[in-house]
């Protein structure tokens, strides 16, 4: 078990530190550096310790990826449902806006100048009232949508925070056990959730 193998294993363990750049964890980084120093200082302990703890760290990192992906997937599904929920209202506002514009544009088809301007004057006055109603109604809908999206965002934030907390706690705990093993203590049995599946 040479130093090249040790370095290769430490590089693999390093994947559990950043998890594709999603987390920046100084404490875990420090523990990983300690692992490297201890493995160089106690090379005879390295094979047994890495055999026990590397698979655990790999599974912790993999679980974090799974949890993080689930948070994003759930958010995307909820956002899509929210979009679908309000699509009908959006179509109605679009139709009303187009209808109002058509009413004014119809004035341009009148031949007589006097009649044309009278048409614009009347249509403009009537449609301004109509547009004000559209504006007020749309403002109310916008407030509701913003609140719905805020709740979805909050759920995602909680989900991600839970995934990150579990990752940090489990990784930190496992690195501490690895470093304890590297200085000569007996390897501890992995928790049930990280035990090797037969």
UniProtKB/TrEMBL annotation:
Matches recorded under InterPro entries: TsetseEP (IPR007931)
N-terminal signal peptide: 1-21
Keywords: Signal
Occurrences of domain Protein TsetseEP (ranges): 46-165
Pfam families, A to Z: DUF725
Name recorded for this polypeptide: Protein TsetseEP domain-containing protein
Organism: Drosophila rubida
């Amino acid at each position: 078990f040479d130093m090249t193998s040790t370095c290769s294993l430490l590089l693999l363990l390093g994947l559990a530190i950043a998890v594709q750049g999603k987390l920046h964890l100084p404490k875990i980084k420090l523990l990983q550096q300690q692992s490297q120093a201890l493995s160089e200082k106690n090379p005879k302990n390295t094979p047994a310790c890495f055999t026990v703890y590397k698979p655990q760290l790999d599974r912790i990192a993999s679980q974090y990826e799974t949890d993080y992906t689930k948070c994003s997937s759930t958010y995307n599904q909820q956002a899509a449902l929210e979009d679908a929920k309000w699509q009908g209202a959006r179509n109605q506002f679009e139709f009303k806006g187009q209808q109002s514009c058509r009413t004014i544009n119809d004035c341009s088809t009148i031949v007589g100048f006097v009649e044309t301007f009278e048409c614009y004057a009347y249509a403009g006055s009537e449609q301004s009232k109509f547009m004000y109603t559209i504006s007020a109604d749309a403002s109310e809908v916008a407030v509701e949508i913003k609140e719905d999206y805020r709740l979805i965002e909050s759920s995602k934030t909680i989900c991600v925070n839970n995934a990150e907390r579990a990752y940090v706690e489990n990784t930190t705990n496992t690195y501490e056990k690895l470093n304890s093993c590297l200085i000569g203590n007996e390897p501890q049995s992995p928790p049930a959730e990280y035990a090797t599946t037969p």
